[in-house]
Amino acid sequence: MALTGLLTIMGTIVAGALLLQWVAARTRRDRVVESQKIPFLGGSAPNTHAWQRFHVRYYSMTLLFIAFEMEMMFMYPWAVVYVAEGVKALAEMGMFLAILTVGILYGWREGIFRWQ
Amino acid sequence: MLERLAARAPVPVFVAMGRDRAPAVERLLRNADIDVTATPRHASILLVAGRVRDSDQAYLDRLHDQLPHPRATFWWGDEQGDDVDEARRAASSDDPVVALRVLYRNLISGAHASETHRLADEPPAPWRGKGDHGQGGEGMMGGVPYGRMMPMPPTPDIRDGLTLDVYTTQIGPFMPYWPAGLVLEVTFQGDVIQSAEVVNPTYPPRDVDRVPFDHLLHETTALAQIERARAAHHLVCIARLLSLVGLPTLSRRAQILAARVRANETIAIAPLRKAAARSGLKAALAPGLGRIDDRLARELGGPVQRAAGHAIDHRSDNPTYTRLDFTPVMQTQSDCRARLAQWFDEAEQALALVSAAPDAMIDHGALIEAPWAHRAPPIDYRVTELLPGLEWSEALLVLNSFDSAALCRMAPLEAP
Amino acid sequence: MTPIVLTMTWVAFLLGMAWYIAVLDGLWAAAREGRQPRAPLANPLYRCATILRQQSNLTEAPDLLNWRLAPALYAGLAGTGVALVPFSSASVLADLEVGIVWWGAVEALTVVVVFLHGWSANSQLGLIGAYRYVAIGLPVMLISMFVLIAAALPAESLAVPKIIESQHELWNVIRQPLGLPLFLLLGLSLSFRGPFNYADSADLADGTASEISGAARLVWEFARLAMLVATAAMAATVFLGGYLGPVLPGPLWLLLKTAVVLVLLVALSHLFARISPSRMLTLIWIVLMPLAFIDLVWAGLVAL
Q: Hey, what domains does chain A have and what are their CATH numbers?
């Protein structure tokens, strides 16, 4: 029920926003001419298209991110049963986090947060 | 209804900075009635401030066409001929805010027709026709849309040696936070600059703050006037950096202080400096960022040289200044942080000199240190040597940590 | 509240608070520059009209579908975020059993949508903004999820209303003092403001927004404000007890608390400089992430 509501809200806003863009484009008579389409580079024109095999300099950081993101999946159910399970739950998650923290320290030493 | 509301908004203006107009445009930035946009896509009026090189006309036309309708061009300067109608120009001595508002209102209401495109309405190269959907053929993007190729073949990166696409483009001459007039051909890998080549040099700077120094060549000038001009010049430089690191309100405060110094008001810089420090301005300028070697610092002279630890200042030899116990302030590190601290220190020192000797006069012809870099470095020191290896935002910080005279000297001078 | 009234309250809250942020921005700037604010209440509306009056732009070979969809999705995500927030004990638009998980999805998809926006214009400045934003957006998301889960511990539930009910005796802001400040950073990051503006910053000529104009830009700018509203409302709910409070009716309390959190967020966005992306990345992983761990352990110990 709540899920349907959220999806309805999402759908309504997206549809409304697309409609606004469509109507705004339709009610204007002036067309976007070719010279207007050149990407902005301070007056210059690019030699090539911008889409490229972009050098993502933080890619090793994203691996560390995935480790934590997976951990997050375990944390959702953990949070619900935490009080019932008590100290045991605290210790387990503490160990899990401690192991992952070693990953942060290792990554830091390897310089994965630097832009290279 | 929409028109009426829109007409009351701050006028969205994109500034194409020509020669000599930087201080005047900075006055505009302070006006709440004007909204200086970062990109022409958000503007309705293209403000051409000052004269533009003939060879830059094509760049200006491209910029013009990038503005969304309704759009208009406004010329601010003395060089415009009679072909420009009254509604769209102002003399350089005039304040254009009222004229801009009127033009904008007429543009919104339709009384002033939106300007049509200046460049040809055709893609840079013919490409339609081939392929299933007329997309121009085969390949990663389905042909060569707009005649533009995909980015260049892979080359090793200068930071980590990874081999990926490089993207080469010209940038400028009308880029925000970019030396006016400078066109560089920049090669990126990702967001890091791999190499840069000067295509067109910067416009030579000519500041309002230069006036008392030029004056001094012929007549006896008040020390207060000279030092106020110095403080104003440095405050404007500081304002640019503040705005670049995402502190626009502090930047405007610096602009306002500069204007008040020029208007002979008494101001204190310490509160601004404190606010900037509290905002983490130092953290935004990483230690060592933009460090230049000693030789370049000495060749440039001025505050850049003193930020590198050389206490060289013509004022030390002037009797008026020695009577006031003048000693040059300096930094040691020669990086962006040092140059920023140097601007603050020198501006504060200048104001201290004004209050210590409000009536002192300096004889004409005396050699007084200018607030900017005043010598030309040798040919092998170019702005293009400073940029490779820097991430884009770092590169802009480095560029803006120099005064415009230094930048002009580091990019080759215009042919006379 | 009936569903109709509830929906209208939600719409009014979203629009009203977005307008409120724009007003705050104007007032803050004027105060710091020491000048009179320019028509502070109406200026946001004037600017909306100006943007809407402009022609919608195109670039050479853009990914048009994604380009138009990105602002719409961004606004949609913000809207569902606000819908999770209960206005009083009996009135919540989306009473989801796993509200916190949905909010986590909103955060993650925001990173995707902002990237898409920068990427689809096929322009270098937008592309740089897009990639740079992902670098910062990802780890900030982790921090916020840690503090949200910490807030869920005493409630023994991932439902937002249950988290409010768990704060009857003591608000989470006191029980878990690190939570709110860390969560506020998320607000700045999700709407890329001030020190976390890595997507649409001045050095990139407004980055992912550098090529848009007209209605698409209006939706984009509104979505940024709406996302800030959503984070503020979430912060007020999870850490400041939401609708709980004496004398005044519940919805009013939520409104007041959200308004106060927004003042904090606007202040933060104007007060701090943006540091280089690599330094920010180090700061997040080395300083802020351990603080989030401490918050979690702290909350865990208190909850036992």
A: 2-110 (1.20.58.1610)
Give per-residue pLDDT as tens, C157-207: 999 999 999 998 889 888 999 999 999 999 999 999 989 999 999 889 999
> Tokens 């409070």 sit at which residue?
C245
Q: Is B281 within 8 Å of B244 (Cβ atoms)?
A: no
Q: How many domains, chain B?
A: 4
Domain match, B174 and B80 both? no
Across the A/B interface, how many CB contacts are shorter than 8 Å?
A: 126
Whether residues B187 and B286 fall in one domain: no
Calpha distance A62→A68 (Å, rounded):
10
Is residue C126 a contact partner of residue C210, using CB atoms and an 8 Å limit? yes
Q: Which pair of tokens denotes residue C41?
A: 């209440």
Q: From CA B158, how far away is CA B152, in angstroms rounded?
A: 16
Same domain, B140 and B66: no
Given an 8 Å threshold on Cβ–Cβ distance, is A80 in contact with C296?
no
Shortest distance between the Cα of B283 and any Cα of chain C, in A, equals: 6
Chains that touch C (3 or more CB pairs under 8 A): A, B
**Residue B416: what pLDDT?**
35
Question: To the nearest 10°, the Cα dihedral for C176, C180, C186, C191?
Answer: 160
- Considering the domain boundaries, does residue B116 fall inside one? no
Beta strand segments in B37-141, E:
45-49, 72-76, 89-90
User: What number is the ipTM of this complex?
Assistant: 0.91
Query: Any residues with CB less than 8 A from the CB of C233 and at least 6 apart, and which?
Result: C13, C17, C81, C82, C85, C254, C258
CA distances, B281 to each of A47, A84, B206 (Å): 36, 48, 28
Q: Is residue B121 part of a domain?
A: no
Mean pLDDT score, B219-227: 86
